[in-house]
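Subject: design request, 65 residues
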């Protein structure tokens, strides 16, 4: 019973982190499957958003050289 309560608490903290902490939300939208994100009420990044993020990262990388 203690393990189940601990697991529920851990999942609750993870969901709260995904929903309310912006860097964690961005990471989750990039890497978690769409079904998991829909289950907790978030939308996954579309192909256009992912492409724009890659362009932004490459541009920053080139500017920092």
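Subject: RE: design request

Done. Sequence follows.
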């Amino acid at each position: 019973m203690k393990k189940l309560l601990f697991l529920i608490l851990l999942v609750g903290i993870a969901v709260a982190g995904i929903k309310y902490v912006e860097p964690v939300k961005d990471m989750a939208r990039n890497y978690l499957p769409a079904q998991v994100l829909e289950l907790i009420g978030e939308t996954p990044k579309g192909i256009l958003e992912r492409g724009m993020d890659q362009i932004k990262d490459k541009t920053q990388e080139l500017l920092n050289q």
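The chain has one domain: 2-63.
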